[in-house]
Amino acid sequence: MHTLRFGVNYTPRHGWFHSWHDFDPARARADLDQMAGLGLDHVRVFHLWPLLQPNRTLVRNAAVDQLAHLVDLAGEAGLDVMVDGVQGHLSSFDFYPEWTRSWHHRNVFTDPEAIEAQATLLHTLGRALTGRPNLIGLQLGNELNNLVEHNPVTADEVDHYLDTLLAAARDGLGAGGGLVTHSAYDAAWYGDDHPFTPEASARKGDLTTVHPWVFSGDCARRYGPRSPQVRHLAEYGTELAKAYATDPARPVWVQETGAPEPHIPAADAPEFARATVQNAAECAGLWGVTWWCSHDVDRSLADFPELEYTLGLFDSSGHPKPIAEALAETIADLRRTPRPTPPRDTALILDCTPGTRSASGPGGAYFEAWMRMRTQGVRPAVVLAARAEDAQYLATRGIKQVVRPS
């Protein structure tokens, strides 16, 4: 039986990710000790692409060493680490090296030399990090599909990009060096004709990552912060991801979920965290849940969307918030008494095209049909229409009945 993993996405308390400009190991260790104190077992960490690779043919050894040092500090605190390579996008800001911009503009998804440079970076990071016992693996970057607005790309070009970078990361880590993955924000699942597809998320890399945010499709405002639609959103995202996988046993990682104000008022955040984790834990094949994020952004830093200032488990002074206590209690309870995850024997058929993918997102007809079943006590799986009559596939997933949305 797989032991569920519970962790947090690390946002440094002092200086946010700008702290990489003057990395302070003592401050990082203090942050990591706080996270470990909640009973978490891992962190996901992010360096900044312009600092790692300021020139297309230069990966800075000093920046790579900083990242490796952080991984080692996490290990000393008892935390495993997932490293994201190309940032890319973080909390409403995009970070591009200058060699991709202005007079040197290159489409980061389609320019062959830009792809080669990113592959070199990931291979270099893999070589530098491999062999560390607390390394979970290497991810291409954080929600790279946030960059498509300024880097037009087709689905086929995305597939080539992902395949190239995944191969480079895997080669850098070497056999048995850890997981190799990629991530995308919810447009990959819900966005009509979005070039990062559900198939790419569910079939490329070693497992599927999902980032079920309550502001996607205006979910929390549409249904209410205490609604079943909000509290079962991570569970739904996990089941949706499983439907697109060709391997029924492929794990799914709820890699980002959080309680952004005002979508989730502070008073509702502890119960939201409990319900989100408990409901997701009822999904067979769940790898784990990683909360966003560790620390609030300090309000001395300007120009963040309001919700970014309130997403932490700890406030910007380093004090644990009620949501941190609720999350720690929920995790401890699940570890003491692991819940069984029996197969979902009833599946709801999803029949959509790339151009009608929004039907499966908040506000969509399929999403609402699934949620109606869930509130009626059914634990529905999701099955694509193309597999709805595949008896062997259904049996492998434990599905005995398929129904169409009504």
From TrEMBL:
Entry GO MF terms: hydrolase activity
Top-level taxon: Bacteria
Keyword annotations: Hydrolase
Protein name: Glycosyl hydrolase
Organism encoding this protein: Streptomyces regalis
Organism ancestry: Bacteria, Bacillati, Actinomycetota, Actinomycetes, Kitasatosporales
